[in-house]
Design goal:
- Helix content is 42%, strand content 16%.
- The chain is built from 11 helices and 9 strands.
- The chain has helices spanning 26-34, 52-59, 63-75, 80-91, 95-104, 113-122, 135-144, 179-191, 203-206, 225-230, 238-245, and strands at 3-5, 38-41, 126-134, 152-155, 157-160, 165-168, 196-200, 214-218, 234-235.
- The strands form 2 sheets. It has a 6-stranded parallel beta sheet, with helices on both faces.
- Helix 3 packs antiparallel against helix 4 (80-91).
- It is globular and about 55 Å long.
- The chain starts with a strand and ends with a helix.
Amino acid sequence: MKFVEFCLRSPCLLYHRRCNQTMTTQSQTQEMFRRAEAVCFDVDSTVIKEEGIDELAKFCGVGDAVTEMTRNAMGGSVTFKKALSERLSIIRCSREQVNKLITDHPPQLTAGIKELVDRLHERNVKVFLISGGFRCIVEHVATQLDIPLDHVYANRLKFYFNGEYAGFDDSQPTAESGGKGRVINMLKEQYGFKTVVMIGDGATDLEACPPASAFIGFGGNVVRPQVKERSLWYVTSFGELLKELEKI
């Protein structure tokens, strides 16, 4: 049978290596953020309050099993693709179920993110969403934040024409280990960015630095101990980042 594509999210991946070794202090990370040309945000549990794949699993009646797998994945204890494949093999959602999830349970923005993105845009900083999550959800979020859809990088689910689950698109860079870093490298090549900051809650976000110039850990929705320990600057609200921009 032929299939059509849809969207997908999933976290995971072992922390690969520390951020640029020349970036050794919180103050240096803060300075890098203040003068960033581009800021890349993770989406699930960062820009929005929930984990999209967990919400879909709950909607499909397999929430407990998948939530535990997500916790392990985001902590970096299993590889990205393995966690993604295992969770999807349990969920096996239909296109109708995904559409209904978005309609009945739209993603909830984290407090302060709209104000932060607006402030970055006012300063002509390019903002990107790089997610291991559902592209349909991420595009909805991007629209709310006035982020161009071509600044969205996320995963896709595949469905047969009858709407049944057919797998996921493993050609997307965010569908495998190190994918967020590859996206950032691509952005640097495409736009000529010298200073790119990655912000997120999970191991896949942390391991994107390098090639990101700096990483800011975010614990406003959930704290991942391994990420917090390895973050040179760790915040629990977007208000902290707004305050930092006021120093300019």
